[in-house]
Amino acid sequence: MADEPSFEVPVGLFQDIEDLKAQVARLTAEVTRLTGGADGGAAPTGEDTSPEAGNDEDEWKFPPFVLLLDSPEYEDELRALIEWVEGVLVTGYLAEPSSDARWCHRWFEHPVAVARLHACWLAWQELTDPATCGYTGPSVWHRDHLDPCIRELRAAGGPFAGCVKGEHQIDHRLPGTVPSAWRQGGG
């Protein structure tokens, strides 16, 4: 049968399909959770199901941005972040620091570095799980999160600009104290 068309499928298409399947599974689970479970019944109306409402079964499961945490949650999150940065990033991605690629061994004392690395870590947690992101998650993480984060941190004008090999300088970029809208109640 010479009239039959050829159905060669590019290899990348299979990865795209697996990514879509993983996204559909993740979204289906989220819809099920938000609508009250497997029976499809909606959550009761008029009931506050927000994480702040204190519902044990619907407790917020994703950590908020690290700079919004108070003690002891901040210290716990920072400790976990330090483990990840020192165990994954420093050993696997950072070459020897230089004037063109700065790094501070006391990076955790630089709030800008903590904020950027925490955001990168949160993305890593999501994008390295094939069940939620498919096969292309790690590639997306490198391109969209790791590379820009490291580029900003190691730039000549980045948070480590005053730190040179063997010396740590935290005061070089800190502005005066500014009241934080994050920490104060409404206006």
**Residue fraction in strands:** under 5%
Q: Total number of β-strand segments?
A: 0
- Mean pLDDT metric: 74
The global form is: flat
Contiguous low-pLDDT stretches (5 residues minimum) are 40-57, 172-187
Compute the CA-based radius of gyration. Answer: 22 Å
Q: What is the SS-derived class?
A: mainly alpha
Number of helices: 5
State the end-to-end distance: 76 Å
What is the helical fraction, as a range of percent?
40-55%
Biggest sheet layout: none
The ordered string of helix (H) and strand (E) elements is HHHHH
Descriptive account of the structure:
The chain is mainly α and 187 residues long. The chain has a domain at 63-164. The chain is built from 5 helices and no strands. The chain is flat, with a radius of gyration of 22 Å. It starts with 10 loop residues before the first helix and ends in a 33-residue tail after the last helix. Residues 40-57 and 172-187 have low confidence and may be disordered.
